[in-house]
Structures are given as structure tokens and as C-alpha cells.
Amino acid sequence: MTTRDEERAARARARVRDFLAGEPRVLAGSLVERSMICGKANCRCHDEPPQLHGPYAQWSYTVAGKRFTRWLTPEQQRRYRPRIEAGKQLRELMKELEHYETLSVERAEGWGR
Ligand SMILES: [Zn+2]
User: Fold this and answer.
1) How close is the Cα of 32 to the center of ligand 1, in Å?
2) Which long-range contacts (CB under 8 A, 24 or more apart) does 14-17 make?
3) How many Å lie between the centroid of ligand 1 and the Cα of residue 31?
4) In angstroms, what is the span from residue 54 Cα to ligand 1's centroid?
5) Å from CA of 49 to ligand 1 middle
6) Does residue 113 surpass a pLDDT of 70?
7) What is the pLDDT of residues 81-111, one digit of tens each?
8) How many other CB atoms are found less than 10 A from the CB of residue 59?
9) pLDDT at 1
């Protein structure tokens, strides 16, 4: 017997499979753009209104509990942004798959979710 949770899990599995079929390059972490104020007192970034430096792209990721932050040049950003976005997409697809697989087991075992 196939439950609705199992059907949903099967569809989520297919989405992960289809995504990986494209052999995407994936990276951990996320990319944010930051505009900065510098230390020079007479710089335009201290004007009113301020003209901030940047925006600069900052890639942050965690490996084995350790946080890393890297500033990316425009060239590095062009190279790595698609991989960072693909990584995020894959994690979302995996989260969805785990969700339906877990629901399916919870119901099959009568653990009441
Ligand atoms: Zn400045």
C-alpha cells in the first residue's frame, strides 16, 4: 500500500534525482552583499547621506562547526555564485525529501505524527 506521504516522498526523491542529473557544482554556505564604512574620517562614506563602499560580496560557510567568511572579487562572485545557489537549492530539496520520508515512517510505525 502506498500512502500519500510515500507518494510525496517519491516525488521529492525524483526532484533530487532530476536536480543531480544536471551534475551541478554545489557549495555550502550563503552569499551576502555588504556595503561598508571605512576608517578615513573625511571619506564620502561618512557624508550625510553616506556614500558607502561596495557592495562587496561575502561568502560564509561552516565546516565541522567552524565558520569561514571569504570576500569575493566580482570575478570570483561570477564563478561561485551559481554553485552557492545550487547548494542552497539541493539542501532545500533534501530537507523536503527528509520531511516526507520521516512523516511516512512516523505514520507507518504508528508513532502518531
Ligand atoms: Zn570610506
Assistant:
1) 20
2) 15/93, 15/96, 15/97, 16/90, 16/93, 16/94, 16/97
3) 23
4) 10
5) 13
6) no
7) 999 999 999 999 999 999 999 999 998 899 9
8) 21
9) 46
> Which set of grid coordinates corresponds to residue 72?
569575493
Whether pTM exceeds 0.70: yes
Place of cell 557592495: 55
Answer for the pair 89, 19: CB distance below 8 angstroms, yes or no.
yes
Q: What are phi and psi of 100, to 5 degrees?
A: -70, -35
Q: Give mean pLDDT, residues 39-54.
A: 93
CB of 29 closer than 8 Å to CB of 113:
no
Cα–ligand 1 centroid distance for 68 (angstroms):
25
How far is the centre of ligand 1, averaged over its atoms, from the C-alpha of 41 (Å)? Answer: 8
Ligand 1 midpoint to CA 73 (Å): 18
Per-state percent for the chain, helix, strand, coil, to nearest 5: 50, 20, 30
